[in-house]
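User: For a benchmark we're assembling, each entry needs the component sequences followed by a predicted structure for the full assembly. Here are entry 17's components. Please fill in the structure.
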Amino acid sequence: MKLNERGLLIVLSGPSGVGKGTVRKALFDMEDHDLTYSVSMTTRPMREGEVDGVDYYFVSKEDFEKRISENGFLEYEQFFGNYYGTPRDKVEQQLDLGHEVVLEIEVQGALKVRNQVKDAVFIFLVPPSKKALKDRLISRGTEDDKTIDTRLAKAEKEFQLAHKYDYIVVNDDIYNAADRILAIIRAEHAKTERSIYKYKSIIEGDL
Ligand code: 5GP
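Assistant: Structure for entry 17:
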């Protein structure tokens, strides 16, 4: 297999509470794409409505730490007392098969991937305003005031890392945001360095 036939790794990230999960779901609900979602592993308790193996692989702390010791994660982070990580083998397998793989992960983890996978595409999702971010965290109603303040303080630091990404997409509307992400993925495919080998016969052929 030629190197440039490998799938594209797309990392969707952004500050805590910006709506990464919702935008990712809207993206996968769209027609006309061939994306594979990398299901993360976590030690946090399962929430109502979540399905093991679909939303996350829910594992014990011991199992997670065993996998860490086996170098089984492309990246992992501790987030509010729980582990979250991207299983390395599944991502590698899908990329080797030429599939596009989407990671939806928080900012520190994304930057770890940046150091390892040089040709991955990094997208930073921002809220339409910081006030919108705060309102969103409050309206979710899943966290108490102290946790919301901690998340906002974390988000503030994460905003400062936006310049390390390839693209910034505003989450003013989940479908618009998903649409922009799809446009970015298409444009990345058309980049000369990724696509020239496909057009070699046209470029080098006779009239
Ligand atoms: P939640 O507990 O709300 O599902 O997720 C909390 C945060 O963890 C979100 O920002 C989500 O994007 C992030 N996250 C989910 N999976 C991973 C992962 O595999 N690695 C990292 N670094 N973050 C993750």
